[in-house]
Amino acid sequence: MEDVEMKKKTLLSVILAAAMCTSLSACGGSENSDSSGNNSSNQLSVSIWDNNQLPGLRQLMDDFTNETGIAVEIQVVPWDQYWTLLEAGAQGNTLPDVFWMHSTYSQRFMRGGVLLDLTDHIAQSDKIEPSNYYQDILGLYQYDQKTYAIPKDYDTIALWYNKTMFDEANIAYPDETWTWDTFAEAAQKLTNKEKNQYGFASPAAYNQDGYYNMIYSMGGYILNDDKSASGWDAPETISAMNWWYDNLVTTSMPTQQMMGENTTDVLFGSGRSAMTLQGSWMVKAFSENEYIAANADVAVLPKAEDGTRKTVYNGLGWAAAADGKHTEEAWKLLEYLGSEPVQRKQAELGITMSAYMGTSDNWVNCAPQFNLQVYLDMTKDMVIRPYTASTKVWEDYSQQVMVRAYTAEITMEEACKEIAAFMNTQIAEE
Questions:
Q1: CB under 8 Å to 261, separation ≥6 — which residues?
Q2: Beta strand ranges found along 61-214 (DSSP E)
Q3: DSSP H helical segments within 314-357, as ranges?
Q4: Distance between CA 153 and CA 142 in Å, rounded?
Q5: How far apart are CA 304 and CA 217, in angstroms?
Q6: 7-59 tens-digit pLDDT
Q7: Looking at residues 78-106, what average pLDDT do you find?
Q8: How many CA atoms lie within 13 Å of 117's alpha carbon, on the beta-carbon side?
Q9: What does pTM read for this prediction?
Q10: Which parts of 119-263 fold into alpha helices (H)?
């Protein structure tokens, strides 16, 4: 027992030290905060970080309460505070009963003895069959042949574009024929720096919803298959990032400083950027933005010259506290949320696409002003977001190095090799 507690304290102190996220990339939603109140002892406490999902999730939780009599209270905590909350809760045995888990942190939490082992519960369940979920998403929440979270959703990346800006420039809208070269040519034509207008915006911190997708489509990779070595120094990765820098960063993007002062969503939502790459988690926010709803649409990602198209995808998991006071009730909620009918309803309500395969078709109707079918179409071209036990450490470092490359402090090749060396050191120490 003492050994487990020591592991928790040591491991989670690392999490706390790295808990600040430099972008919303792969976070599954916005940073908006809303709390539903104080928890009481006779109800389950649930913590999430995306306010956009709150209305739909409340419907699901109300259905659960009506079915089981178990009350549920949801607290929304901004992403940059969320992991600090979980770390403090783990050390003080005050974790929420149920909470979201993310691939960036899952390995550390699983190894730290923080999460409830669901393996036996799943084996005895008539509602949860692991083979029904996207296996890469399920794998994010497995360690040492045990499962620690129920897959909640999955997300893909697509290309958002401003139809009005395209029309004014007499450029055809993006479609499945677009290559990355086509994309770059359009971005350059849509850029007018004197008017503070840019063809594309993607800061150095954006990976899953940025250059990762281009790297994989051009034959590069971030992490090898057995997660033993970085792919940042692979010739294909370096070549892809050189292309990204030469054809986009230096020609069609706002400065790194400008993108630091204004998120890409703000730039896109104000007509200052004609295109952006964004995950399916942002659909609700975009649909509620009057400018985007009136002027924008979405297309599949560009492909490489050889026809390869890739989207880097991720997915959240529903987890429970190992030392929670209501583990039985918590499991009932996890089992409910992971069941086929509820996963289907999650998609129909427009909360997110669901991790249970075959249940997300109706998600495309949640914002009919956009061609959301492209997010589902990207499903056949998915690559799981790279992760190891030290993901947060090496991702933060890579983003810092990439800033130096974006600002021409170092070359892109130097940046790629520096990131690879750091990653390999971190992986060796896991």
A1: none
A2: 71-76, 98-101, 142-143, 146-147, 150-151, 157-162
A3: 327-338, 340-348
A4: 16
A5: 6
A6: 455 445 544 444 444 334 444 444 444 433 334 457 999 999 999 999 999 99
A7: 95
A8: 9
A9: 0.90
A10: 119-124, 135-140, 163-168, 180-189, 212-217, 235-244, 256-261
Mean pLDDT, residues 234-244 taken together: 98
pLDDT category at 191 given cuts 50, 70, 90 is: very high
Provide Rg for the chain, Cα atoms: 21
Cα separation, 135 vs 228, in Å, equals 20
Give 256-307 as a DSSP string. Answer: HHHHHHS-HHHHHHTTSBSEEEEEGGGHHHHHT-HHHHHHEEEEPPPB-TTS
How far apart, in whole angstroms, are the C-alpha atoms of residue 307 and residue 317? Answer: 32
**Which of the following CATH numbers is that of domain 2-155+314-356: 3.20.20.70, 3.40.50.620, 3.40.50.1820, 3.40.190.10?**
3.40.190.10
pLDDT at 255: 95
- Measure the CA angle with vertex 208, ends 52 and 430; round to 5°: 110
Using 50, 70 and 90 to split pLDDT, how confident is the model at 411? very high
Instruction: Confirm if 242 and 234 have CB atoms less than 8 A apart.
Output: no
Same fold, 2-155+314-356 and 157-313+387-428: yes
Strand order in the sheet with 275-279: 275-279, 157-162, 296-299
289-348 residue pLDDT tens: 999 999 999 999 999 999 999 999 999 999 999 999 999 999 999 999 999 999 999 999
Total residues found in the chain within this entry: 430
Instruction: Look up residue 76 and give its two tokens.
Output: 């929304």
Q: Which fold has domain 157-313+387-428?
A: D-Maltodextrin-Binding Protein; domain 2 (3.40.190)
